[in-house]
Amino acid sequence: MKLALNQAVLFSSSTERFIDLCSQNGIKNIEFRVPKLKEYLYFNSGIQLSKKLKDLDLNVIALNSLDDFGLVPDDNLSLLTHEVHFVGQMCEFVNCPLVIAPVGRCYRTQLEKSEVLEKHVERLNFISDILKEYGVKVGVEPIAFSDFSVHSIHDADEICQCSSAGDAGLIVDYYNLFQKGMSPKDFEKLRSPVHLIHINDADFLPAEVLDVVDTRVFPGDGSLNALEWTLQALEAGYKGCFSLEVFLKNLWEMEPETAMFKIMKKLEIFNSTVNAKLVKEE
Questions:
Q1: Average pLDDT in the chain
Q2: Which one of 75, 83, 188, 205 is CB 3.0 to 4.6 Å from 209, fit for a cystine?
Q3: Is the Cα dihedral 59, 242, 271, 190 positive or negative?
Q4: For 163-190, what is each residue's pLDDT tens digit?
Q5: Does the reported pTM lie above 0.90?
Q6: Nearest Cα residue to 32 out of 56, 68, 58, 70
Q7: CA distances from 167 to 24, 127, 128, 212 (A)
Q8: What is the C-alpha end-to-end distance of the chain, expressed in Å?
Q9: Quick one: pLDDT at residue 134?
């Protein structure tokens, strides 16, 4: 199992410190958050950042994220165009092959489901055509919560299948799928490639109480059975990274070194559990 770390887990840390901590603790695959990387690049050389990442043997697997792309009005497409080019240029600096694109929120949007999906297909084609100029593909991420317009991984799969973007794929987040009442067996039904998996768990609360941010916990510490999700993904042929994505305020309040120590312990335990199960099943 190839592990990765999303920068949001250490969001209070600077980008430079995040890079150093990942390198020092043996994390080879990382996700940058777009606002954090933008902030860094406004004050530091992108060429020097690229060299540092190469020297430390760090792989930037994704930029997270190009938000709310799916429902941008036609007369505002110039704004989306500028943003996509900006994100593509940041990908070039850090040699990143993937941009995560969460589905659009429902802000003042009164559309039928079919219209929402059709608009997302159009916008996926639009952003994919631009990002191809930078050698970057798009991962569509459904968000299970009511503020967002596409909740189901199967609807996101349909968007990718109807798109002309041949390299578009899915971002799977255990927490989102679980909150929507899906099961690990849903991996078998997907037609589009899974570009990245976010690993996490759900606090021991009823599904209707779960929050988009505050009730995510480390994989193995909650109620969604992250082990089974991981085993099913591997059985379905997934070869990519399993990237930790949690938004724990107590981690953000710690010194970055202390937080990283806890993160590594949790990842080691979960990785060992997965490996032990795989060996037992052989």
A1: 95
A2: 205
A3: negative
A4: 999 999 999 999 999 988 899 999 889 9
A5: yes
A6: 58
A7: 33, 12, 9, 28
A8: 15
A9: 98
Instruction: Give the position of tokens 């999700």.
Output: 229
What secondary structure does DSSP assign to 203-244, as a single string? Answer: -SS-GGG--TTTTEE-TTSSSS-HHHHHHHHHHTT--SEEEE
Note the Cα 54 to chain centre separation in Å: 22
Assess contact for 19 and 258: CB atoms under 8 A: no
Question: What span, in angstroms and rounded, lies between the C-alpha atoms of 83 and 81?
Answer: 5
If one compares 145 and 123, the residue with the highest pLDDT of the two is 123
Cα gap 227→242, rounded to integer Å: 12
Q: Are strands 137-141 and 201-202 parallel, antiparallel or unpaired?
A: unpaired
> What letter represents residue 29's amino acid?
N
Q: Residue 135 is encoded by which pair of tokens? A: 């050698």
- Is residue 59 packed enough to be buried (19+ CB in 10 Å), middle (13-18) or exposed (0-12)? middle
Taking the C-alpha atoms of residue 109 and residue 55, their distance in angstroms, rounded to an integer, is 47
Largest CA distance in the chain: 57
Tens digit of each residue's pLDDT (9 = 90 or more) over 88-97: 999 999 999 9
pLDDT of residue 108: 65
pLDDT tens track for 111-128:
899 999 999 999 999 999
Question: Between 15-24 and 256-281, two packed helices, what is the crossing angle to 10 degrees?
Answer: 40
| Both tokens assigned to 80 | 């989306």
Instruction: Report the pLDDT value the prediction gives residue 129, as an integer from 0 to 100.
Output: 98
Judge whether residue 110 has pLDDT over 80: no
Specify the pairing of strand 216-217 against strand 59-64: unpaired
